[in-house]
Amino acid sequence: xxxxxxxxxxxxxxxxxxxxxxxxxxxxxxxxxxxxxxxxxxxxxxxxxxxxxxxxxxxxxxxxxxxxxxxxxxxxxxxxxxxxxxxxxxxxxxxxxxxxxxxxxxxxxxxxxxxxxxxxxxxxxxxxxxxxxxxxxxxxxxxxxxxxxxxxxxxxxxxxxxxxxxxxxxxxxxxxxxxxxxxxxxxxxxxxxxxxxxxxxxxxxxxxxxxxxxxxxxxxxxxxxxxxxxxxxxxxxxxxxxxxxxxxxxxxxxxxxxxxxxxxxxxxxxxxxxxxxxxxxxxxxxxxxxxxxxxxxxxxxxxxxxxxxxxxxxxxxxxxxxxxxxxxxxxxxxxxxxxxxxxxxxxxx
Length: 349
Known about the structure:
Elements: H1 2-9, E1 15-19, H2 21-27, E2 38-41, E3 46-52, E4 58-63, E5 74-81, E6 90-96, E7 102-107, E8 119-127, E9 132-136, E10 143-157, E11 166-167, E12 170-177, E13 179-185, E14 188-192, E15 196-198, E16 204-210, E17 217-220, E18 223-224, E19 226-231, E20 234-238, E21 246-254, E22 257-268, E23 286-288, H3 297-306, E24 310-316, E25 327-331, E26 337-339, E27 343-348
């Protein structure tokens, strides 16, 4: 580390590398199109010098403008370095303990720069609000771009601050180290537009929030929902079917994290179908007793049989013959409904 310190003090060991702002800015593109990427660390604008680092260390910008700490929870999706050669280099997350010390809290895969120009590397590294970015290097001859900025502070650990280790850094003044990280903020959900639907699924639910671009999953409880990306602030999901009625949480996941809505989605059992009217059974044939009064016996018998009844007992008053008499009394009375084949009796007079 002494070699870097001496290089920063003595100009005769510094090879100047001028980076024009118009060249640097386009390279700081968001790694996920449309997502609100936050740049943490150096803006990499200005005349950076290439300095030899020395023995293996963890280096970071400690204080200065821009703020080297992440303003949001999320994930580092890319990082940039300038004036670097050798390597490989590793992006590292530092968690402050509040006592002037830091704990190693995550490390990217190694990346080897192809030149001392501005280099971009992709990664996926969780980061929390207030945590710092740092980088590890590998060889004593590795280099880093440096910029003289009065009032800035930079720190280093020697040896390298490994994952889970806690230590107090050494601090140097007036230098900005040439690297930064691109942080995609974790998603948030403000509101879900529809809060209930059928257990059969198929309910459209508009989910509104922030940093929803690049959504990889939407879940209702533990069930995955189909969804479409509307914008960075909205996702339109379709509720999956549920085996039971009740309330479940709704969550959205991006590569920067998962957000759960404050509102629940309530599954409701579909209403029971209205009962069907009873199906009429087959019509039952009946004997409907005809009106027989005044009919001769032959006509009365014919009417009885036509009504699906049968001729019952035939009686007659004294002096009346079967051929001349007419019905003066019948049993049952006309209009009575009886089973098919019921007997109808008549009296002739």
